[in-house]
Specification:
Blueprint lengths: L5 H4 L5 H14 L5 E2 L11 H12 L12 H15 L8 E4 L1 H13 L5 E6 L4 H8 L3 E6 L10 H7 L4 E7 L11 H12 L5 E5 L15 H4 L7 E6 L12 E4 L2 H12 L7 H12 L3 H22 L14 E2 L20 H12 L1 E2 L1 E2 L9 E4 L4 H16 L3
Parallel strand pairs: 1-10, 3-4, 3-5, 5-6, 6-7
Antiparallel strand pairs: 2-8, 7-8, 9-12, 11-12
Helix pairs in contact: 2-13, 3-11, 4-11, 5-6, 5-10, 12-14
The structure holds pyridoxal-5'-phosphate (PLP).
């Protein structure tokens, strides 16, 4: 009998780690590597937020707080939901955790029994299936291909629901595809869910503010008020305010679920960092100009990357509505051989060859449950992106 638990054997190490490790090795050998795999904004946290954190330290806000968030941060979150989403929540319906990640984890652990099913549209954020498995549930993956704009359709949702379905995880805008659901597309899904009262929705809205071309963000609890008592709306400050390292995320849900999540948190991590909470409060209550500024930068970069990739033979890159990722298809390259002689059998072979032969690090689509694709994070400088796209084009032109 091994020392490590059986539970651990059921999950896999993050598929992106091998790629990041190899990129670091090549960089250490002096190679010029462009990393396009990071899932975080490349900006610094705005100075008003940093100042609020420093002031919180000086004011002595350095002790334990209430387990799932200070009352004042919870009030700021309620105001955010009211102001930005037209959602009316009480502080007792709010949970603050160490990143949105902990909110998701707590919710799944607090609700799943062995054999309960969780519908996860693919391509998905890498952590969803493993979180479900760790919590004892069964991920039900529904592929949402490029032809559907990487979005779950009402028909596909209906077909995936069984009496054991407990959650649907809906991430809009999506990591890794950047696809976002508009009001009507969400309504089509919530109409299905109204017919299946056993199913709850976990809405991962972490990329809410990164939407382009005037796209109007919508979220299930707002689109279908009749469903609000079985929705957990998850959000956070990581992506909206360039605060990934501060580790503050939050969720809004019916009080009974929020209480259960707080109980779990009280026996694991207790409160998220007190200083992070004060910084998050400043982010939500303070000036919001940063959001529009970063959105404009990301939209420009998205356009640069999409245009450049669509110039590469064998690549088809749809234009995403949001986040800071593109998820191009490489169907046109499968079966070919790179200039250096690597067979492009699948998207993993493509990503490895791209790294070894051109020094561009991307993440292969199989990691996100939908092939043959790859993900680029364009949260890096225009100069790096221009150079990366030029290298990818040369690579594709060399394939035959
Ligand atoms: C889709 C998605 N959800 C949730 C998270 C978690 O963000 P955090 O834990 O930083 O709030 C991430 C981070 O990469 C993400 O991409």
């Amino acid at each position: 009998m091994g020392f490590l638990s059986d539970r651990l054997a059921r999950i896999k190490p993050s598929p992106t780690i091998a790629m990041t490790t190899r990129a670091a090795e090549l960089r250490a050998q002096g190679q010029d590597i462009i990393g396009l795999s990071a899932g975080e904004p490349d900006f610094d946290t705005p100075s008003t937020i940093r100042d609020a954190a420093k002031a919180a330290i000086d004011a002595g806000h350095t002790r334990y707080t209430a387990v799932d968030g200070t009352p004042s941060l919870k009030r700021a979150i309620c105001e955010k939901f009211s102001r930005e989403n037209g959602l009316d929540y009480k502080p007792s319906e709010i949970s603050v955790g160490t990143g949105g990640k902990q909110i998701l984890f707590n919710a799944l652990l607090a609700t799943l029994n062995e054999g309960d099913e969780v519908i996860i549209p693919a391509p998905y954020w890498v952590s969803y299936p493993d979180m479900v498995i760790l919590a004892g549930g069964t991920p039900v993956i529904v592929e949402c291909g490029i032809e559907d704009g990487f979005r779950l359709t009402a028909e596909a949702l209906e077909a995936a629901i069984t009496p054991r379905t407990k959650w649907l995880i809906l991430n809009s805008p999506s990591n890794p595809s950047g696809a976002a659901y508009d009001h009507d597309q969400i309504k089509a899904l919530t109409d299905v869910l109204l017919r299946h009262p056993q199913v709850w929705v976990l809405a991962d809205d972490i990329y809410e503010h990164l939407v382009f071309d005037g796209f109007e963000f919508a979220t299930p609890a707002q689109v279908e008020p009749k469903l609000k008592d079985r929705v957990l709306t998850m959000n956070g400050v990581s992506k909206a305010y360039a605060m990934t390292g501060w580790r503050i995320g939050y969720g809004a849900a019916p009080e009974a679920l929020i209480k259960a999540m707080a109980m779990l948190q009280s026996q694991s991590t207790s409160n998220p960092s007190s200083i992070g909470q004060y910084a998050a409060e400043a982010a939500l209550n303070g000036p919001q100009d940063y959001i529009a500024e970063s959105r404009a930068v990301f939209q420009r970069r998205r356009d640069l990357v999409v245009a450049g990739l669509n110039d590469c033979p064998g690549i088809d890159c749809p234009t995403p509505q949001g986040a800071f990722y593109v998820y191009p298809s490489i169907r046109g390259l499968i079966g070919k051989t790179s200039a250096a002689g690597t067979a492009i059998a699948d998207d993993e072979a493509f990503a490895n060859a791209l790294l070894e032969e051109t020094g561009v690090a991307v993440v292969f689509g199989a990691a996100f449950g939908l092939s043959p694709h790859f993900r680029i994070s364009y949260a890096t400088s225009d100069a790096q992106l221009t150079e990366a796209v030029a290298r990818i084009r040369r690579f594709c032109e060399g394939c035959n």
